[in-house]
Amino acid sequence: MEQRRPRLRWLVVWVFAVVWMAVVVGRLSYLQLFCYGEYFTKAQHQQQRVFEISPKRGVIYDRKGRELAISLPMDSVFGDPAEITDAEMVARLLAPALAMPADDLETKIREAHTPVRLAKKLSPETVQRIQDMNLRGVFFQKENRRVYPQHELAAHVLGYVDVDEKGNGGIEYALDKQIRGRPGKMMVMADGRRRWYDRTESAADPGASVVLTIDQTIQYIAEKELERAIEETHANNGTVVVQDPNTGQLLAVAVRPTFDPNNPGSFPDEMRMDRAVSAAYEPGSTFKVVTMTGAIENGAARPSDLVDCQMGSILVAGRLIHDWHPFGVLSVQEVLAHSSDVGSIKVALRLGAPKFYETMRAFGIGQLTGIELPGENRGLLRPLENWTASSIGSLAIGQEVSVTPVQIVSAISAIANGGALYRSRIVKEVRGGTAAYTRAAVEPEQVTDAKTAATVREMMETVILEGTGKPAQLDGYTAAGKSGTAQKIDPATGRYSPNQYNSSFVGFAPVNEPAVTILVVLDSPVGAHHGGEVGGPVFKRVAEQVLTYLDVPRDVPSTSDVQTAKNSEQARPQPVEIGAEASDRDDDNGAGNEAVADKVEKVDKNVATKPGAPTIAFGNQEAVVVPNLAGQTVRSVTEACSRIGLVPALIGSGVALEQSVEAGTQVMRGTRLTVRFGKAGRLVPASVKGAGN
C-alpha cells in the first residue's frame, strides 16, 4: 500500500504537468494563430511611430513659365523623450523661440513615447536660435512650406494651403490631388525603455506642376488699375477680367479686396472670396447686347429700324418702367449706343419671350462655364414657364437675371470672335506626376451667325464712339463695348435701392481683330455711378496697356501719331512756287495763289494714279493716296491703313477682295476705308462701294 502512494503521487504530478503544458501550448497556439494580428499591431504601436512627410507640392506657373506658387524646404523641430532627461528645462528654453507656452511643450514631451513634433516649418532665424541651445534630444526634420513670391498677385486664382499643405481655395484646392503628390513616411523604433534605436524613411512623391493661362504682367496691369478705381470711386469691391476671345483663355482675373496667400488666416473670409466666379450680380445694361443679338439674328430688328422710346417710360403688363433719360425716336443702333431702357424693352417685345430665352441659354446664361476654379456660381435665369407677364421687360435691360463676371465676359467674347462661345479656361497644362496632361482645345459652340456678330460689333463700336462709352475710347485702337448701371436690391426692403449700383463696362479691342475682351465691375461706387463714367476709364487704361504689351498693331492713328504729323506739317517748307505766278503771291485777289493751286492740282492728278505716292499738303490739311489692298491679309491691311492715317472698317476674314475707295484715289487723313475679306476668287457684292466716309 505504501509502495503505491509514491507511484500515485508521481502520476498526479505527471498528469498535472501534462495538463499544464497542454494549457500553455494551447494558449500559445491560440495567441499565435488567432491573436497574432492584434498583438502585433499593439507591439508596433508601442515600439514604433510613423510620421507623415509632406510631399513637395508642384509649382504653379503663369502662361510664360513664371513662378506664382512654389514649395521651399523648411525645418520642423522634434523632441525625443528617451533622450530628454529634463523635459521642464527643455520646454522652458524652447518656449520663447517657438512662441508657445512652456507647459504645452512640456506636456507634449512627457506624454510622448517616441519622438514628437514640437513645431512645424520654422524660419531660419528660429532654427539657428534652437541649434545654438544645443539641447540633447532635440532635432530637426525637413518639410516643405508653400510660398507665393508675388504675394497678393492673382491670390484668388491661386488660392492657398493649410498647415498640412492641403489646398484651400483657387487652383490649390481645385487641383489639390494632382499638385499635392503622395506623402512620404518616417518610422522611428523604440525599445522597452522608450529609447529610440532606429529610423527609416520613404521618400514622398512630388506633385504635378500647373501652367495657368493667366499672364503675370497682364494680371499686374488689371490689379493695379482696379486698385486705382477702387480708391477713386470708393467702391465696396471690384473685379476685372481679361480674356482672349479667340480661345476662351483668361489672361487676368483681378479681384478687390484681396489677401496674401502666404498668410491667409489674417484676412476675413469675404476677402478670400473669388468674385469672378462666385459672386453673381444683375448685369444691367451690359445685358442689352444679348437682347440686340437675339433680335437681329431672328429678324425682329435691324440697326436702322426706328423705335419710339416714348420720352422715358413704358407700361409692360401693368408695370411702369422708367428710362434713365427721356429719349424720343431712336434707331435700334442708337438705342444700344445711348442705352435706352424703353427702346431695349420694345426690341425684346418684338423678339418674343421664347426666342429671347433661347438666345440667353445659347450664350451660357444661367449655366456653369466649367472653369477650373472652385465655387463657381451658375447665376440665375428662371425657366420660361416661371416668367411673369412683365419678366421680358426686366430681362431686356438686365434685371431678373444674374451672371458672374466670367459668364458675361465669355458671352461678349462670342460677339467679338464672330459668334463662337468658348468655355472659359484658367488651366493650360499640368506637368509631371501621373496626371500630366495638356488641356486640349474644346470646340466652341456657334451661338449666333457671323453676320449678326459683325452687325452687333459695329453697334457696340458706336457705343464707344457716340454713346455712353465715350470715356472708354482707346488711343491708337478701335474698340467696342457696352456700359451697365444696375440697381442693387436693398436687403432691408427687398426692392431696388435708389442709390446703390453695380457699375460695369465690358468691351473688346481692336474691333475687327479682337485680341482681348475686358470686363470691369465696381460694386457701389460713391458719387458718379454710371458704368461708362466709372468703368469706361478703367477699361481704357487696361486695354491700352495690355494691347501694347501684346504688341497688337494699332488700327487707327494714335495721339502721338497725330502730334508727329502736326509737327512735321509745321516744319515742312511751303509748296514750291511754280511759274511767274509766284510773284503775285501777295496779290489781294489771290490770283497768284490760284495759279499755283491750279498747277498743284495738275500735279496731284498725275501723282494720284501711282499707289504709294507721297502725301501732298493743302494748307492745314493733308491728303493721302489710297493703296491697293487686294489680296492682303487683315493684319496687313490694318498696318497699311495705320501707316498712312486711314481708319479701316474690316468685314469678314481671309484676304481683301474689295475696298470702298479705289486704289490711287487721294483722300484726307482719317477717312474711313471699308475693306471686305473672303476666300480668294469669291464674288463680293458691290454694295460696299461708296462707304468710305
Written description of the protein model:
The chain has 693 residues and is α+β, with helices and mostly antiparallel strands. Helices cover 35% and strands 23% of the residues. The protein is built from 22 helices and 29 strands. Strands 2, 3, 4, 5, 10, 18 and 19 form a 7-stranded mixed β-sheet that branches. The protein has a 5-stranded antiparallel β-sheet with strand order 12-11-23-22-21, sandwiched between helices. Strands 1-8-9 form a 3-stranded antiparallel β-sheet. The chain is elongated and about 140 Å long. 42% of the residues are buried. Mean pLDDT is 83; it is low at 573-621 and 681-693.
**Tally the helices: what do you get?**
22
Largest sheet: 7 strands, mixed
- Summarize model confidence as the mean pLDDT: 83
Query: For the terminal residues, how far apart are their CA atoms?
Result: 145 Å
Indicate the multimeric state.
single chain
Q: Helix fraction?
A: 25-40%
Q: Helix- and strand-based class?
A: alpha+beta
Please compute the radius of gyration using only Cα atoms: 38 Å
Poorly predicted runs: 573-621, 681-693
Task: Write the topology of this structure.
Blueprint (H helix, E strand, L loop, with lengths): L3 H31 L1 H12 E6 L6 E2 L5 E13 L7 H12 L3 H10 L4 E7 L1 H10 L4 E10 L7 H4 L1 E2 L5 E2 L1 H5 L1 H5 L3 E7 L5 E7 L6 E4 L3 H18 L3 E7 L6 E7 L18 H4 L9 H10 L8 E3 L4 E4 L2 E4 L6 E3 H6 L3 H11 L1 H10 L28 H6 L8 H12 L3 E2 L5 E5 L5 E2 L6 E2 L3 H17 L13 E10 L6 E14 L6 E8 L7 H4 L1 H14 L9 H13 L19 H18 L7 E3 L2 E5 L8 H11 L2 E5 L3 E5 L6 E3 L3 E7 L15
Parallel strand pairs: 2-10, 26-29
Antiparallel strand pairs: 1-8, 2-3, 3-4, 3-5, 6-7, 8-9, 10-18, 11-12, 11-23, 13-16, 14-15, 17-20, 18-19, 21-22, 22-23, 24-25, 25-28, 27-29
Helix pairs in contact: 3-4, 3-5, 9-19, 11-13, 11-14, 11-17
